[in-house]
Amino acid sequence: MEMLKRDPTLYRDIAKNALLRWRLFIYWTFLGLFDAVVFFFGAYFLFDNATVTSNGQMLGNWTFGTLVFTILVFTVTLKLALDTQYWTWINHFVIWGSLVFYIVFSLLWGGIVWPFLNYQRMYYVFMQMLSSGPAWLGIILLVTVSLLPDVLKKVICRLLWPTATEKIQTKQPCLSVEQSTIFMLSQTTGNITF
């Protein structure tokens, strides 16, 4: 907070909605299209006419859809984690908790016969997918490929065109645990004194 008071030019990076420009919007749109192509066609070509279970069964449409959606959930959540600049316990709880919730919900939804449904097409699909080694490889590979442009852009932009905030961050020494805790607590609205 003191740094912002001493150097108000740091606000220049976000002045007049600089982060909501058309160029950035088009970048995110193309990135979404790229991710959609990676999710669908990556899963399609990785598992096209391939036996993926130990008993020789092939992926069905429900398993394929579950695989693509699992890749989507993990990619979007990890993109959120990559774009998070200030981590609190709430961030950790929401980001990692949403991944745990998705896995637990998918296991429960597909692993229990629900009496209020007329038919269950998703029964045992998620567990069958997770019991397959190639499905795990596909999830890891496709999530990595879809996160690669984000990581490369972040690294290249920080090296070649750093913002004023990033320049200050590289000049300042890292805060120790005690200093960062005091800084975080000083940002709360409570009456905490030391």
TrEMBL record:
Signal peptide: none annotated. Keywords: Magnesium, Membrane, Metal-binding, Transmembrane, Transmembrane helix. The keyword DNA-binding does not apply. Its main location: membrane. It comes from the Eukaryota. The keyword Transmembrane helix applies. Residues 2-163 form the P-type ATPase C-terminal domain. The chain crosses the membrane at residues 24-47, 59-81, 93-117, 123-148. It is a multi-pass membrane protein. It is found in: Membrane. This is P-type ATPase C-terminal domain-containing protein. It comes from Staurois parvus.
